[in-house]
């Protein structure tokens, strides 16, 4: 059996540093980085103005992303997916994606406090003003209510990354 690529994906509250960590992991593992934000912006420019819009369009691209990622894994390419894996349902999707291919996976769980997340969101608003309407404390608290800490019983290979205060 030919070597399959490894899938890396991320769990952490909004502002935890998933995108930054994804870039580092991709560089360290000579992996292809696939960003949900980039795919959504390219396919649905200026159409995502609410969290419900995000959910709608994120679900629309999943079948295409799945096929693309599986093709990369199948030829032995490591893939880093900068997509949220913040609920058990989202993580099950990633697990099925690589399970169908017989590929290894690693879930990077960024265990970051709310205070740290909000500080990083504030900094991101300054650096990326186009995100200011979505990157707010209100949105943070809204999406955080859906966050679920990953658990070993989900069958995941979890690496916890705790950031010091």
Describe this protein's structure:
With 165 residues, the protein is an alpha/beta fold. The protein has one domain (7-162): 3-Layer(aba) Sandwich (Rossmann fold). It has six helices and five strands, in the order βαβααβαβααβ. It has a five-stranded parallel beta sheet with strand order 2-3-1-4-5, with helices on both faces. The radius of gyration is 16 Å and the shape is globular. The N and C termini lie far apart (45 Å). The relative contact order is 0.23. The model has no long low-confidence stretch (mean pLDDT 91).
State the CATH class.
Alpha Beta
User: What low-confidence regions span 5 or more consecutive residues with pLDDT below 50?
Assistant: none
* Largest beta sheet: strand ordering: 2-3-1-4-5
* CATH-derived topology: Rossmann fold
Order of helices and strands: EHEHHEHEHHE
Whole-angstrom Rg: 16 Å
Shape: globular
Count of distinct strands:
5
Helix content: 40-55%
Tally the structural domains.
Answer: 1
According to CATH, the homologous superfamily is P-loop containing nucleotide triphosphate hydrolases
Compute the average pLDDT. 91
What's the story with the biggest beta sheet?
Answer: 5 strands, parallel
Keywords: ATP-binding, Nucleotide-binding
InterPro entries: P-loop_NTPase
GO molecular function, one term: ATP binding
Protein name: ATP-binding protein
Question: Can you summarize this structure?
Answer:
With 165 residues, the protein is of the alpha/beta class.
What distinguishing features does this structure have?
five-stranded parallel sheet; 6 helices; globular; ATP-binding protein; alpha/beta; 5 strands; 165 residues; Rossmann fold
């Amino acid at each position: 059996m030919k070597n399959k690529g490894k899938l890396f994906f991320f769990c952490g509250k909004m502002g935890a540093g998933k995108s930054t960590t994804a870039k580092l992991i991709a560089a360290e593992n000579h992996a292809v980085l696939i960003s949900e934000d980039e795919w959504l912006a390219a396919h649905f420019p200026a159409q995502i103005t609410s969290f419900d819009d995000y959910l709608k369009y994120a679900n629309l691209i999943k079948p295409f992303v799945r096929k693309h990622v599986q093709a990369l894994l199948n030829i032995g390419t490591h893939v880093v997916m900068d997509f949220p894996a913040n609920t058990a349902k989202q993580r099950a999707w990633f697990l099925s994606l690589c399970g169908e291919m017989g590929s290894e996976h690693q879930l990077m769980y960024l265990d970051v406090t709310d205070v740290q997340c909000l500080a990083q969101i504030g900094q991101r608003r300054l650096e990326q003003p186009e995100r200011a309407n979505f990157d707010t404390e209100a949105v943070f608290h809204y999406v955080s209510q859906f966050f679920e800490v990953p658990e070993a019983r989900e069958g995941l290979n979890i690496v916890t990354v705790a950031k010091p205060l």
